[in-house]
Amino acid sequence: MLHTLMKSPFKTDISFFINMLKISDDFLALQDGVLIALNNNVFLNKITFSEAKLYAIKEDVYARGIHKNVSRKFILINYSQFVKLTLKNKKQIIW
């Protein structure tokens, strides 16, 4: 399943949605959701503990000027790769 986070993690029930993640899931942060990928934020340990594959949209990371502070646990991808994730995951949830 593909889980996408488009809103700031501070405006989302992160604990609930992280508990939904399974090891076989993909997680994608885009728009303001990329803030979850920042090093040393309060949500990072929780989401990396989920063992889901973690992705963030590169353009959104750079647009917010946070590219130097993104955790290495996140793989930066472009929008073409995002489309491939949607094709791979027939089921999707937007948070």
UniProtKB/TrEMBL annotation:
Gene3D superfamilies assigned to the protein according to its UniProt record, in alphabetical order: DsrEFH-like
Keyword tRNA processing part of the UniProt annotation: yes
Keyword Transmembrane helix: no
Cellular compartments per GO CC: sulfurtransferase complex
Signal peptide (from-to): none
MF (Gene Ontology): transferase activity
InterPro entries per record: DsrEFH-like, Sulphur_relay_TusB, Sulphur_relay_TusB/DsrH
SUPFAM superfamilies associated with the record: DsrEFH-like
Main location: cytoplasm
GO biological process: tRNA wobble position uridine thiolation
Pfam families: DsrH
Subcellular location: Cytoplasm
Keyword annotations: Cytoplasm, Transferase, tRNA processing
Free-text function comment from the UniProt entry: Part of a sulfur-relay system required for 2-thiolation of 5-methylaminomethyl-2-thiouridine (mnm(5)s(2)U) at tRNA wobble positions.
Subunit structure comment from the entry: Heterohexamer, formed by a dimer of trimers. The hexameric TusBCD complex contains 2 copies each of TusB, TusC and TusD. The TusBCD complex interacts with TusE.
Family: Belongs to the DsrH/TusB family.
Protein name as catalogued: Protein TusB
Gene: tusB
